[in-house]
């Protein structure tokens, strides 16, 4: 395969999430970001404010990118175009291709370009890339991926320069390392590992010291921001000092062998997703293949072999550190171990390291064979890329079956459908439903084409699907909002779940619309239908409940059988 064809295929895979997800996946947490970033507060205030939706981790740079994503989405929403594919994901995807195209020929001159592109296509075709780049979520990890690939290729290229060329500038490593570690803690972890690896190489060869200094300086910049500048900026912008509690590392977490086994299991799945989604039982076969390749290289050696215990120890330390990182991540954030989180977002940076290692290994084999690889290698890589793509539908179903993906993908589909039609879906629930009505109130073009409907207001708890119907719980004083596209007579219809003796009265300002009283001797559903005169736009309707029960008054709730309907006319 030629390099030009490889580039074309890579760009096609970069564009694939846009088409595959048809407008993008909208993560629930991202909806809170949008609401915050669209507020009337200044950009520094919302960017430098992790309290309320995140723990302080010194990654405000990623919030700044999220802020820009939100403005892009908001701009198009004001023109009645709701696209939820963040531009930062497109930049990150193109960045991976650009970093590879620039760095691979320079860092890996012994590897044929077509084979190198096939290795990159493994990364771009695996479902983690497809799901992550198609989701509106945090920008941090996707942007770390191209920066890490660049840092690895740049470092390898500079390490291979002759000592007399050691004066080449190393500021790109410093800049890229600092940015990726300020974006996300995985970036800092891999920058720290790279610094140690470069330091180890310098001790062995006394070559590449400037690379060590550049990487170490980037680590120092990140730590200075995390402990000094970041807290000060947050205090200046929002008047509070962030807590460092989340950043505390407890060695006891790794004292449990189960944490290590869990970390290994997660890493196994992250790795196999790159290679055609092959089942975990093929891991031993993969190990045997690597050992066979090692034996081939051993048989073709030209110089007597020399043991290198220090290098072996360094590689083992890297593996242990990688497993420990995942184990700690799982301890802090258990969803990382869920089936849907194993195929989305979190593996995307680690997979860059695996692809880099694969590129390096293929080049070593090629050099050992006199500049060529067995013909089976590119064929195998092409087959794995094809398997990756073929597994997209299956892995989408796995994503939809998980505890996170089941609700998020269903609600994303319903939200996009509701935004297109202007008619709130009767099964749209949770924060996605609330976001739809926030968009109605914020963006006039959407409101102008929405049909008559009723949304939930203050005092109504988060909606959910219960026994196949939309349901929410209401407090003693609750509110719903009637939206009328034209002024006139309407009828408010719906149902309430009440206990015996409970009642709920409806009022439009000072005007009473009617009430619902539960006469039966057992809890159940009571339907209602009240006529009302409404102006154009939104009108608040107050529900005042008299509730019984043994709970404290502030904890008592009644049930709302949703959605409520707003029908034109008196009939």
Summarize, please:
The chain contains 20 helices and twelve strands.
Structure, explained:
The chain contains 20 helices and twelve strands. With 571 residues, the chain is of the alpha+beta class. It has two domains: 3-403, no CATH class; 443-568, Galactose-binding domain-like (Jelly Rolls). The protein has a five-stranded antiparallel sheet, with no helix packed on it. A five-stranded antiparallel sheet has the order 4-5-12-7-10, with no helix packed on it. It has a two-stranded parallel sheet with strand order 1-2. Helix 8 (140-159) runs parallel beside helix 15 (348-368), helix 10 (185-205) runs antiparallel to helix 11 and helix 12 packs across helix 14. The model is unreliable at 302-307 (pLDDT under 50).
Annotation keywords:
Jelly Rolls; 20 helices; 5-stranded antiparallel sheet; alpha+beta; 571 residues; single chain; elongated; 14% strand
Task: Describe the global form.
Answer: elongated
Determine the fraction of residues in helical runs and give it as a percent range: 55-70%
Discrete helix count = 20
**Radius of gyration over alpha carbons?**
28 Å
Number of strands: 12
Write the layout of secondary structure elements.
Blueprint (H helix, E strand, L loop, with lengths): L2 H18 L4 E2 L1 H10 L5 H5 L12 H19 L8 H21 L5 H13 L1 H7 L1 E2 L3 H20 L11 H13 L1 H21 L3 H30 L18 H16 L10 H17 L9 H24 L15 H21 L7 H15 L1 H10 L3 H17 L8 H13 L1 H5 L4 E4 L7 E3 L2 E6 L2 E8 L3 E11 L4 E6 L2 E7 L6 E11 L2 E10 L11 E11 L3
């Amino acid at each position: 395969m030629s390099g030009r064809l490889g580039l074309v295929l890579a760009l096609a895979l970069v564009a694939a999430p846009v088409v595959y997800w048809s407008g993008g996946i909208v993560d629930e947490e991202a909806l809170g970001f949008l609401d915050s970033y669209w507020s009337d507060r200044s950009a520094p205030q919302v960017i430098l404010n992790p309290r309320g939706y995140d723990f302080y981790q010194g990654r405000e740079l990623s919030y700044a990118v999220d802020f820009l994503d939100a403005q892009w989405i908001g701009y198009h929403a004001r023109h009645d175009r709701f696209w939820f594919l963040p531009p930062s994901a497109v930049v990150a995807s193109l960045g991976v291709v650009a970093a590879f195209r620039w760095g691979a020929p320079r860092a890996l001159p012994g590897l044929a370009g077509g084979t190198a592109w096939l290795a990159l296509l493994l990364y771009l075709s695996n479902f983690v890339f497809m799901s992550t780049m198609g989701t509106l979520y945090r920008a941090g990890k996707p942007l770390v991926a191209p920066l890490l690939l660049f840092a690895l290729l740049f470092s390898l290229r500079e390490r291979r320069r002759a000592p007399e060329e050691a004066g080449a500038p190393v500021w790109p490593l410093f800049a890229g390392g600092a940015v990726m570690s300020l974006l996300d803690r995985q970036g800092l972890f891999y920058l720290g590992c790279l610094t140690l690896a470069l330091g180890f190489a310098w001790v062995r060869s006394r070559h590449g010291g400037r690379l060590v200094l550049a990487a170490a300086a980037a680590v120092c910049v990140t730590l200075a921001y995390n402990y000094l500048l970041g807290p000060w900026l947050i205090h200046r912008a929002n008047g509070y000092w962030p807590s460092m509690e989340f950043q505390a590392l407890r060695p006891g977490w790794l004292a449990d062998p189960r944490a290590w086994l869990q970390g290994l299991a997660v890493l196994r799945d992250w790795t196999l997703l790159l290679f055609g989604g092959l089942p975990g039982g093929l891991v031993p076969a993969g190990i045997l293949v690597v050992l066979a390749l090692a034996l081939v290289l051993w048989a073709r050696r030209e110089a007597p072999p020399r043991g290198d215990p220090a290098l072996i120890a360094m590689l083992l330390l890297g593996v242990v550190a990688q497993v420990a990182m995942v184990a700690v991540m799982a301890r802090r954030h258990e969803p990382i171990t869920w089936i849907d989180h194993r195929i989305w977002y979190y593996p995307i940076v680690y997979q860059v390291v695996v692809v880099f290692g694969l590129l390096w290994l293929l080049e070593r084999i090629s050099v050992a064979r006199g500049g060529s690889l067995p013909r089976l290698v590119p064929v195998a890589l092409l087959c794995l890329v094809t398997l990756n793509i073929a597994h997209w539908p299956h892995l989408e179903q796995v994503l939809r079956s998980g505890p996170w993906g089941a609700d998020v993908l269903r609600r994303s589909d319903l939200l996009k459908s509701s935004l297109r039609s202007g008619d709130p879906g009767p099964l749209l629930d949770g924060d996605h439903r609330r976001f739809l009505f926030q968009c109605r109130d914020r963006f006039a073009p959407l409101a102008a084409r929405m049909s008559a409907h009723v949304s939930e207001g203050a005092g109504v708890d988060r909606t959910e699907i219960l026994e196949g119907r939309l349901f929410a719980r209401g407090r003693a004083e609750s509110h719903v909002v009637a939206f009328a596209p034209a002024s006139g007579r309407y009828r408010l219809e719906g149902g309430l779940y009440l206990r015996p003796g409970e009642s709920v009265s409806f009022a439009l300002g000072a005007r009473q619309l009617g009430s619902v009283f539960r006469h039966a001797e057992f809890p159940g559903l009571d339907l209602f239908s009240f006529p009302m005169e409404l102006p154009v736009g939104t009108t608040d309707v107050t529900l005042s409940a008299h509730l019984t029960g043994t709970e404290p008054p502030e904890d008592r709730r009644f049930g709302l059988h949703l959605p409520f309907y707003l029908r034109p006319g008196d009939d």
